[in-house]
Input
Amino acid sequence: MAARKKSGGRKYGKAASKRVESAMRRKKKGTLRSGRSRKKVTSRKQAIAIGLSEAREKGAKVPRKRGGSKRSSGRKTGGRKKTGGRKKTGARKRR
Output
């Protein structure tokens, strides 16, 4: 049996590394914000993901995203689901 050849080279490019580094600094400073809601990022993993995403947009050497289950592009709405039926009252009648 022939020995397997190891694939050499870097998985991520230098530009990607710089982007992630920048995102981490912004996270520590408290200015890194995410998504449409522009909420402040507090998670280290989220900061790394944002840095890699920015690098990907700029064309840096970054592996493609793993294909997971995709959610519908529709917006989530807050609040309760409406249920058909009567309203529940606090006190019950006794017979």
Q: What stands out?
A: The chain is about 35% helix and 5% strand.
